[in-house]
Please model this.
Amino acid sequence: MSTATRTDFDAELRRHNEVLRRACGIQSGEHVLDIGCGTGQTTRQAARKARAGSALGVDLSAPSIEHARQLASAEKLRNITFEHADAQTHPFPQDHFDLAISRFGTMFFADPAAAFANIRRALRPAGRLVMMVWQARDHNEWIVAIRRALEITDASGADAAGELNPFSLADPPAVTELLEAAGFAEVTFTDVHEPVYYGADIAAALAWIHGFTCTSETLKRLDHAAAERAVTRLRTTLAAHTREDGVWFDSRAWIVTARCR
Ligand SMILES: C[S@@+](CC[C@H](N)C(=O)[O-])C[C@H]1O[C@@H](n2cnc3c(N)ncnc32)[C@H](O)[C@@H]1O
Model:
C-alpha cells in the first residue's frame, strides 16, 4: 500500500471546488443548505462566507456527518450545523434558506421530483440553487477508462446499483423540466472542464477507485484469477494517467443554477 495520503472527495475534486465556490457567490448574511454534503468541505466554505448567516449540511451517511462535525468543530465555526438526513424527505424549515448548494450530492435521489420539490420548499421566494453534477458518462474520461479496464459494457450487467447513477442529471433538457416542475425557473448550465485527481500514485488511485460502486461490484462478481487480471488492467490504465503530480483523469461537469419561481 502506498505511503501517500489517502484520496478523498476533497482531493479528487480539488479543481472543481473553486469553480463551484465562485458560482455560489455566497453573501455574508445568507442561510445556505448543502445537499449531500459528505464530510462538509463545501458547507464549511459556505459558513465562512456567510459570516452573518448560517450553513446547514445534510447527508444520508452517518459517518460522513460525524466526520463533518469534527472538521467544523476543529475550525471553530459557530454558524454551521449538520443533519444526518435524507434530503428528499427531511422536513427542512420552509422558506428559510437563501441558497441550496451541492457538490455532486444530488444525482442519487430515488425520487428526484420529490427531492427537488422538498429543497424548493426550504428556499425563500427569492432563493436559488447552485449544484455541480456530472455531464454524460461518455464525456467523462475517468468512467470510460475504468469501465474499459474492468470490461464493463451496458450489456454486461455489471453496471452495478442502477439506483446510484452519478450521471442521472447529465441531460440539460430533462433537468430543466425536472427543476421547473419542482418550482424553479431560469435554469442554466455551465460547462466545467476540469480533471479529477485520484491520488499521488497508482496504489493510492487504485485504493480510491476500489471504493467506486462500479469497481467493487464488478470485482465481486469475478473469480479470483479474473479479478486479478482486471486489477492489472486497472493498474495499466492508472499508469497511463500518472503525471509528476499524481494520477489525473479528464472530466466534464455542469454547474446548474436555478431561481425559485
Ligand atoms: C459524491 S458524494 C459527494 C459528497 C460531498 N458533496 C463532496 O463533494 O464531498 C455524494 C453524497 O451524497 C449523499 N447523498 C446521496 N443521496 C442523498 C440523499 N437522498 N440525501 C442526503 N444525502 C445524500 C451521499 O451520502 C454522499 O455523501
